[in-house]
Amino acid sequence: MSPFTIVALTAALLLIFSGLYLLLKTHNMLRIIIAIEIVMKAITLLLVFAGLMNGKMALTQAFIITVILVEVVVAVVAAGVAINLYRHNGDMEISRLNKLNG
User: Containing domain of residue 80, as a range?
Assistant: First the structure.
């Protein structure tokens, strides 16, 4: 394996593990959104790496655009929930999500 391969895989795995650790340890809505974004960026990095290894960059670019679109939609919806949570409770603790009414 080339040094580039090792660095790319190590960076992606570190990003995934740090994002998952943050997801498991926090109770703040903004930190959860950031953790989801970190994991999604790591998945994007792995997709780029897979496309580079397979030589099918056109297909990989289509997947990456799809992942980015899904990531943006998830972030916007989660930010809307976070804003609503802050307006009703004054903080962004996820334990108070059950008090929100649609």
Answer: 3-99
